[in-house]
Amino acid sequence: MLSIAINDEQHKGVIITKGAVEEVLNKCTHLELPDQGTVNATESGYQAVLGMAKQLNSQGLRLIAIAIKPFPQISDIGLETHDENDLTFVGFCTFLDPPKEDAADAIAALKEHGVNVKILTGDAPEVTFKVARDIGLITQEERFDDAVLSGKVLAGMTKAELATALDRIVIFAKLSPCQKLEVVQALRASGKVTGFLGDGVNDALALRGADVGISVDSGTEIAKDAAAIILLEKDLKCVVEGVHLGRVTLIQTLKYIKIAASSNFGNVFSVLVASAWLPYLPMTPLQILLQNLLYDLSQASIPWDNVDPEMTRLPRSWEHRSILKFMICFGPTSSIFDIVTFSTNWWLFGIRDVNNAWRVSQAQ
User: Fold this and answer.
1) How far is Cα 193 from Cα 163, in angstroms, rounded to an integer?
2) What is the tally of helices (H) and strands (E) in the chain?
3) What are the φ/ψ torsions at residue 28 (nearest 5 degrees)?
4) 208-232: b or e for each residue (b if 16 or more CB lie within 10 Å)?
5) Are 2-96 and 103-234 equal in CATH topology?
6) How much is the pLDDT for 349?
7) In which element (H, E) is residue 56 found?
8) For FRET with 300, which of 157, 175, 261, 309 sits at 20 to 30 Å CA-CA?
9) Domain locations in the chain?
10) Which CATH number applies to 103-234?
11) What is the pLDDT of residues 151-179, one digit of tens each?
12) Distance CA 203, CA 222 (A)
């Protein structure tokens, strides 16, 4: 809520309060209702106002409740917290904030990439549910109670109950900043790599608590300070492109490490076998370095290598077992050619000392 105190033309003071619907209504003792005028606040009156709010929210409209209160002539003394009591509710300010035209396409692209999208917001559940339907995040057949969890309900849940609800719930609405962080931590605790996109002051805790905090250049300073990535364009397609390029980078990095690990393992394996079998040193250090250089030249082409679309369709993690298997399988494969070369030099050409053979070839 936010309240201001002003003097009207007759020098009579009045307090004007704006804020979230339920929070403002909790401070009201009178209600200004259609066709009834100003009446004392009763439970039925509260429910009538909340019913109007839900109806407007279901149309995708965001609401700010407005209340007033007569006040003695305003002086330089500021308002106190207790001054925001005994208010009279007078109506709503409604705002239409439609989703961007490309939001639905971005959500669909993220789903194709195996990214599970959820909404964590301080807005009303009804308006968030309407927006989620419009962008295709939930289907037209899904029911409100099956897809939405409010902050009031979340406050009464245990960690185990929240962990059970994570897979089912798509919209977490009417959340406090601490509750946004709680949901993010629960997602991480369930083993999911979690990114959080936000641009407001209330998003700072969740941005800091996520694996990857993402904000936009037009966001608040505290949000940008808490984020790990700043988007220069306020466009979800940037996130989709970032996910795709991140997976391409991971796959290309794995290729590089597999080649490096298998080539070095093969060289070491060749030298170990030869040292146990041959009575002389089969390769000079210069030859080993030259072989490594040739491998490095082949690895230099990896940044321009293509990645199959199916490789980036689903999330991938660091595949240390895959690297180990590749190294054990392909490393000794290259050693076979090394051992064949050593055997040919020994039996066919009669080379008994590679250092001596090198000196002889230099002399010739």
Assistant:
1) 15
2) 14, 12
3) -95, 135
4) bbbeebbbbeebbebbbebbeeebe
5) no
6) 67
7) helix 43-57
8) 309
9) 2-96, 103-234, 241-363
10) 3.40.50.1000
11) 999 999 999 999 999 989 999 999 999 99
12) 9
